[in-house]
Amino acid sequence: MIHIAGKLSEKRKERGITQEELASFMGVSKASVSKWETGVSHS
């Protein structure tokens, strides 16, 4: 099983991108990215 939350955070940090920058690029809120990375939400 792939752990999306951990991978998302890991890859974002490897690229030096903030949660806010990723959220803006994806057209979602920073809170959504934070929830994805912590595993609180996956939708």
TrEMBL record:
Keywords: DNA-binding
GO molecular function: DNA binding
PROSITE patterns recorded: HTH_CROC1 (PS50943)
InterPro entries to which the protein is assigned, alphabetical: Cro/C1-type_HTH (IPR001387), Lambda_DNA-bd_dom_sf (IPR010982)
Domain of life: Bacteria
Domain HTH cro/C1-type intervals: 8-39
Pfam families xrefs: HTH_3
Protein name, entry field: Helix-turn-helix
